[in-house]
């Protein structure tokens, strides 16, 4: 192929791969059921390389899919239209930790956990902690606006991105923002690129905001007889003006599966558990943990365990941390969703998810970030069982509709990707979709950036159930 | 005029004004030297009214300028192309304070201070505090992404906007976001509308994030012999991992002018002052104030005064609060700028501003938000003195160039408006401007929304001085 030879000539044959094994390895991400072969994989060493690739792809109308570690759960990094997958393994450096301005500047391939450790060594803190952070990259986190367990108190990735260098599809370099607490020079392009899922430009450098590392942290686990008392606890903690660093939820089904998997002595006769953490100055943490402890008991917690030390805290966190792994071993295919609702609607949302599971005769376990209203209903299924997969898809459509009905959204932290593209219009309406398509066109007139993501060929028809819609 | 009669018919003659007095009153904002007569003023009572106005203006290509209280300092709310000024006096309600989800939902005409007071009465806190908050509206704050004194610790308006209802130029209603801590369904249209200066759509409702009201607050004032020791103090406080709620700066010239105006006993033989505040839990505030006190002394502060009580704190804050009023009385025209640099560059930036003032023989006093690197170099001049005004303009161009040279921006919190439109390309480059124009086109194909703002007919030529650019 002509463009491929030109690619090799421009950026070097050592960073262009077209062998079947490599292509296969880049044909999928962490999402079940989405796979397509790319024509080539390129691993640029510099912004100039990225410019050269994009210029060429722009000219020849070749699709480009930027990819970090491909932990995406919405099919966002699959090369559905073929073309070039761009891998950032060579652009993974931490370029600067600026202790005067409390910023860190990195290349997109930098592993999130490496960054977190590097800044912690200097007494600084990068709060976003997606579950995949040990392998996910900052470029991927920015492209997806990744959340994590600390979202309620500390916000998400977007809240820490101060400046970006990005290459536009035509090869031009765009610089947005700066090491600045305030910048209102025009539209917020930084924030527009964050969460744009590789559909607008390729991020080649990012400057992130850091904050002082909290002095200490305390961990607590509480069991509840039923969902409602756990949900009431969540609401009342916030109403009492305590904003915990972590406020995680697991339903009965998840607890059972985790215990069956790990045998760690979780009680399986409970209805729900909450994992609560607070960080900050020692006295504040003590007070907040006491306050949360009191609310748990007032709302009828069956038991509450406060960690004695960090080792004990690790065991309390363990159940939540392995939830997905435990669920994943139940069956060949695990589908993890992230419908999100206002915090006050968590109990209602979980009830609706349970009802939907019963209606479609599928097993749904739900866990997630209760403080954020960000739930992960998870289905253990088998992609080869087409009949069941159809029921699963119909159930998820109902779950999205339920989340929207409660004032929520179809995705809290995983992104739209290919998987939720048909549902995006449910959230945004035709006017919102039109505006987004216009924005896409402004950046990417030939539609080469991560095609078939975010925008569906056709929106799903939404079947409105009951009186509300 | 045909469209005006149609306007009266559609939304009622009682909310359409075309008399010369009203038109004159809406011909300017708080920016000196920008004035133009609108053809009509409309004061919608509902989203439906806004839709009707926009549909009509879209059809007849009539410019629309949304306007809150017109405290804008960049000519952003002047009807430079005539047309309709939209006034939100009738849409000023607080619709809901949601204590479960910690949100407040308001109409755009709501006065910022009213909102702040209403939520404080419930133990909640809306941190953004632009200096104009006693008269400015939330709609204006959102359109400009207003900052304030608490930006360093708490962020700016954008950090508190969770959801928007906005009317597109064609009359369609757009709903973005939700009462959600996390939402990644497509591009971040909420954030794109925040700071868009009325050039994309008309905001008709906003849901804002609230946080618990801090337990207490402490205030401290420190004098320094020279600029550098004050700037070093700012840097060292942050390096010591203390993020104060307020970290304000006034230079020698500003101190002199304030003392001459208010006679409050400020020492005029000092080089700079810092106003420092911390809020939060009592113990944390005490520790942080002690830590900041120690840094001030280590860096050679001439004196440090810690407020004994709230009344004393008010007197310490007074000098900073009246700085602009004091400067404004010096001469007929006061031009307040807001070039912003990384925090570490404050001393250098103030030195460059002083040098620029000398070079153009104009008086520049500088004060501002030192913790944010957000400085307000202020010139007392006379708009009728054209020769001096030319020097002032040239000086400001040099100030913007200096800010950019130091990694900063042309506007930290005032917006681009008409005043800085010719300089926007200096910050964004041609690629950034092109992308922004494409975004503008996606929302507003006929260019009716607040024309002549943000995008200049022609960019200023930038004269690069010295070796760096």
Description:
- Helix content of chain A is 36%, strand content 20%.
- In chain A, strand 17 and strand 18 (374-381) form a beta hairpin.
- Chain A folds into 4 domains: 2-87, Uridine Diphospho-n-acetylenolpyruvylglucosamine Reductase, domain 2 (2-Layer Sandwich); 97-212, Uridine Diphospho-n-acetylenolpyruvylglucosamine Reductase, domain 3 (2-Layer Sandwich), CATH 3.30.465.10; 216-321, Alpha-Beta Plaits, CATH 3.30.70.3450; 330-414, Alpha-Beta Plaits (2-Layer Sandwich).
- Chain A is α+β, with helices and mostly antiparallel strands.
- Chain A has 15 helices and 18 strands.
- The model of chain A is unreliable at 465-469 (pLDDT under 50).
- Chains A, B: Belongs to the FAD-binding oxidoreductase/transferase type 4 family.
What's the quick description here?
The structure is a homodimer of 469-residue chains. Chain A is of the alpha+beta class.
Q: What is the topology?
A:
Two copies of one chain form a homodimer.
Chain A (H helix, E strand, L loop, with lengths): L1 H10 L4 E2 L2 H6 L14 E3 L4 H14 L3 E4 L16 E4 L6 E5 L4 E4 L5 H9 L3 E2 L12 H7 L6 H4 L6 E7 L5 E5 L11 H5 L8 E8 L1 E2 L3 E9 L2 H13 L6 E6 H11 L9 E9 L1 H17 L4 E4 L3 H12 L1 H6 L4 E4 L9 H14 L4 E6 L4 E8 L4 H20 L18 H20 L26
Parallel strand pairs in A: 2-4, 3-4
Antiparallel strand pairs in A: 1-2, 5-6, 6-10, 7-11, 8-9, 8-10, 12-14, 12-15, 13-14, 13-17, 16-18, 17-18
Organism (chains A, B): Exiguobacterium chiriqhucha RW-2
Protein name (chains A, B): FAD-binding PCMH-type domain-containing protein
Cofactor (chains A, B): FAD
């Amino acid at each position: 192929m002509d463009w491929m030879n030109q690619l090799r000539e421009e950026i070097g044959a050592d960073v262009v791969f077209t062998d079947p094994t490599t292509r296969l390895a880049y044909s999928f991400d962490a999402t079940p059921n989405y796979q397509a072969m790319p024509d080539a994989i390129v691993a640029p060493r510099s912004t100039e390389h990225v410019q050269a690739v994009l210029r060429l792809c722009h000219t020849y109308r070749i699709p480009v899919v930027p990819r970090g570690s491909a932990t995406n759960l919405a099919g966002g990094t699959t090369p559905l239209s073929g073309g070039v997958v761009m891998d950032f393994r060579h652009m993974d450096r931490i370029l600067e930790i600026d202790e005067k301005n409390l910023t860190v500047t990195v290349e997109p391939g930098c592993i999130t956990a490496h960054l977190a450790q590097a800044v912690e060594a200097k007494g600084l803190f990068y709060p976003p902690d997606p579950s995949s952070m040990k392998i996910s990259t900052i470029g991927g986190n920015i492209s997806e606006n990744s959340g994590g367990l600390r979202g309620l108190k500390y916000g998400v990735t977007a809240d820490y991105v101060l400046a970006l260098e990005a290459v536009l599809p035509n090869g031009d370099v765009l610089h947005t923002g700066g090491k600045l607490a305030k910048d209102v020079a025009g539209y917020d392009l930084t924030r527009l690129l964050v969460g744009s899922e590789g559909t607008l430009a390729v991020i080649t450098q990012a400057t992130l905001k850091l904050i002082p590392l909290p002095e200490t942290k305390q961990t607590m686990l509480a069991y509840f007889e039923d969902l409602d008392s756990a949900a009431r606890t969540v609401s009342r903690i916030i109403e009492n003006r305590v904003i915990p660093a972590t406020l995680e939820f697991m339903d009965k089904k998840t607890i059972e599966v985790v215990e069956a998997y790990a045998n760690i002595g979780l009680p399986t006769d409970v209805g729900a558990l909450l994992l609560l953490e607070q960080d900050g100055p020692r006295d504040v943490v003590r007070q907040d943990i006491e306050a949360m402890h009191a609310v748990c008991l007032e709302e009828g917690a069956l038991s509450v365990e406060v960690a004695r030390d960090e080792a004990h805290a690790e065991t309390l966190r363990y159940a939540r941390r392995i939830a997905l792994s435990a669920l994943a071993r139940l069956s060949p295919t695990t589908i993890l969703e992230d419908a999100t609702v206002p915090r006050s609607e968590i109990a209602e949302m979980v009830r609706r998810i349970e009802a939907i599971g019963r209606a479609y005769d599928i097993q749904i376990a739900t866990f997630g970030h209760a403080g954020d209203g960000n739930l992960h209903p998870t289905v253990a299924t088998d992609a080869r069982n087409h009949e069941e997969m159809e029921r699963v898809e119909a159930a998820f459509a109902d779950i999205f509709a339920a989340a929207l009905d409660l004032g929520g959204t179809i995705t809290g932290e995983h992104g739209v990707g290919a998987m939720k593209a048909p549902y995006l219009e449910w959230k945004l309406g035709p006017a919102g979709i039109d505006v987004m398509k216009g924005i896409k066109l402004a950046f990417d007139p030939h539609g080469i950036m991560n095609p078939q993501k975010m925008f569906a060929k056709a929106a799903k028809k939404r079947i409105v159930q009951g009186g509300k819609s």
